[in-house]
Amino acid sequence: MIKAVPNILSVARFLLAFVLYFTEPLSAAYLTVYAVCILSDPVDGFIARRYDACTRYGHLLDSLGDASLAIAVLCTLIPFLDWELWEMVLIVTVIVIRLTSFAIGTLRFRRPAFLHSYLNKLAGTAFFLAPLLIRAIGLPPTMAIAGTVCIIASLEYLYINVTKEEYDPNYRSVFLSD
Looking at residue 178, what is its pLDDT? Predict the structure, then answer.
């Protein structure tokens, strides 16, 4: 039974992301559902590694759960907040680089090329903390911090999928020796 928990958490994150579409952005209810989603991500990874519960499709379910949450956040916050042009350009740039990286990796390696590098994990953390940071410090400082981290991680993702000979979803970083 414990081996199913990580996949159940990933699927729950995927489903809970849809609740955000029906909740007022940045309200207490929104941030509560959102917090449950973001806390489930490290928990499912911990359980999968700790109890040797990694499954063939577990990393894919995890990535789909993360992606659905990211899309829900963007779809609910973009129309809700007063964005400056540079912030929107930054978001679009990150999305284009990430989709390009994913497409290149998927074509090269003949499988969905999600990457769990340290920088991608840091970018995910920055992105997923963004709604909480927006409430705490405002939109422009949050975008400067999260945007910088996400751009650097996205460029690393692209570099890895273009240059590496074999697919390794857990490749640590181009800044660390193998």
Answer: 61
